[in-house]
Amino acid sequence: MSKLPPILQQLCFPVIGSPLFIISNPKLIIAQCTSGVIGSMPALNARPTTQLDDWLAEITEALAAWNRAYPNQPAAPFAINQIVHKSNARLDQDLELCAKYKVPVIITSLGAREEVNHVVHGWGGVVLHDVINNRFAHKAIEKGADGLIAVAAGAGGHAGIKSPFALIAEIRDWFDGPLALSGAIATGGAILAAQAMGADFAYIGSAFIATEEARAADAYKQMLVDSTSDDIVYSNLFTGVHGNYLAPSIRAAGLDPDHLPESDPSKMSFDENAKKAWKDIWGSGQGIGAIKAVVTAAELVARLKREYQQARERLGL
Known about the structure:
The chain has helices at about 5-10, 25-35, 50-70, 90-100, 115-120, 135-140, 165-170, 190-195, 205-210, 220-225, 245-250, 270-280, 295-315, and strands at about 15, 40, 80-85, 105-110, 125-130, 145-150, 155-160, 180, 200-205, 230-235, 245. By secondary structure, it is an alpha/beta fold. Helix 3 (about 50-70) runs parallel beside helix 4. The longest helix is centred in the first third of the chain and has 21 residues, at about 50-70.
């Protein structure tokens, strides 16, 4: 049994909605949390910085109102993703706003920084750091992260190349804290499988893009419905970090997905140029074969819960 901080012990369904660059917004987060899963978004989705203040106020007020109206079905906590790489000039300002609203969970990406973890712990927040291998996992915990998100092969957006079986086993060999698994998880059975491997939570992104609340183009959502894992391309061209993307969107942008050049990782950036790139080149994980229609976030979570229970029953659990 993992050692979970109190805020994560309260979660009734073991799912974290991953932060979707550009796409996640307060409407989606609120729908996720009121459906019983942790909703999240990158702080950088709020542009300009002052919009983050408005969005955090909207989220906290909406979830508080839900909890007053439905005390027996409290909303799950929400999370904000902070890119802690040196290219993020907004980090300090965004952390100040997260402190103002005492954001329950902070997801850190692209570098583990002890001083960031210290700031979050100062307001009582929990830090989950995403990693693609065991070496980075050790570094994150050594620098004070509370938990880990193992980003395995098949995850959408920035993804690793390790099998989830290998990655979870290596981390669990020494770490007994909060652990989420990311990588092609889009069914209730996959959620149960993540737990069977040793993860506490499934980390799901692509399936939530194809929801009515997500701030994604209708064509993007439909492409997810129409595509399968055969349509996923792994490349570092677009941000300097390897990730998984939809081949049809690459073709639509005038590029050949089968012959993409390598990018210089030192030029990694999340400025407006990166934002424009992600508007045209659409990220996706390999689990999209399970996406059959664009639905509400509540309907998606209901499907996952139903499939999860069915999987448990098949195993006699």
